[in-house]
Amino acid sequence: MMRPIIEMKNVVKSFGHFKALHGVDLQVKEGEIVVVIGPSGSGKSTLIRCINQLEEHNGGEIIVDGAEVGHGRKSTVLTEVGMVFQSFNLFPHMSVLRNVALGPVRVRGLSWAEAEERAQRLLTRVGLADQAAKYPAQLSGGQQQRVGIARALAMEPKVLLFDEPTSALDPEMVGEVLDVMQQLAKTGVTMVVVTHEMGFARKVADRVVFMDGGRIVEEGPPDEIFNTPRDPRLRSFLQAVLSH
Amino acid sequence: MATNVEALSIMSIFDTFLNWKVFVQTLPLLLSGLTTTLTLGVTAIILGFIGGLVLALLRLYASSPLRQIAVAYIDIFRSIPILVLLVVIYYALPFVGLRLSSFGAAASALSLVSAAYSAEIFRAGIEAVPKGQFEAARALGLSPWRLMSDVVLPQALRIVIPPITSNSINVMKDTALASVVAMPDLLKQATQAQALAANPTPLISAAVIYILILMPLVRLVGVFEKRLAVRGR
Asked: Which of A90, A212, B38, B179 has the smallest set of CB atoms within 10 Å of its CB?
């Protein structure tokens, strides 16, 4: 029995009067691939942004790798959580290699030489070995997002969060990013992926979580979610996204 | 007859305002004044830059009392005329036992005001860095200090190059105010030389020297702005 690496208990998050999360419970086991789906504004991005505290939750508990996070706690456990953003958020004033090497140097205490060697290895893994010296603006969106994945991996995190990693990409570049993510899923790293790519969810997820209105409405193995959805909101959501 | 009068008046304009002999005689004095002006200007620009950066960071990220102090400082020193501040520092502070040299007084007044203006420029620059950059740095686990020094400030500084250069030009021009506290800067030396030679040529020379020093900087701002516009960010 693998232990949970993320535990969310009755997590509440509001922005002013708007309640984005209404008491969410979620457990993610080590090595598990969880894909979160749901309509826009359903709270799925807020959910994963709370896990690494880009948003601080207002109520409930979030425990990452055994340590509670949030509410002013200074915890090093969050360096075990990597994040890949919808808009890549690469550092535009640094070379691709530097982008990937920065975290290991500043947070893990590696030397630049060690970190750049690691960065080069990871860039090779995402198929960008020959782009290391370039600047982010010189790369295509798909390439930039693969650098984003390499940057997150360079910290050797226990958990990787993906916040709609392909939503800002031109259609022809979605595949190259999903391929890298699929490769990653086989390495045993824990992944929580917010996405609209139902094909990816079906193929790669161990568990699919469907959110609506700031609540987890239904969760289960992809087969169950996609073939025998129970909740009417999930059924109409799937109808809407799969019909075309 | 009329043309003779005209010729005479043109001659006298040259003799009065562009007198070569007076120019050559007073040039050494003007150049020593220029050295003082440049030293004062560069000192105030550097101190104002550092002070402005600190103030901007306090205003954006410090907790309540410190932040309020930074806000008050910025508002006050942007409202007070430099000349008034200079006179207060030079003529009033000695009454409370703080006696500054004319250079010290001028450098303080210019730096204090420049820091307030620079602070607002830096704040705008930092706020212009996309939110995603802060988030990516935090997600990597960078400390707040590293987030600033590695990620945000390098981008913010690039954004503020044109306005900071503009501000530096203003500081350079405002050094002329120091002549009222008897600092031997370019303007003071020019008025001195004008009195000695009984001829305004040194003033014209000083004006030309100011323009020669500052116009390249003015052009530079234009170049920076164009370059930023081309990069489209």
From this structure: B38
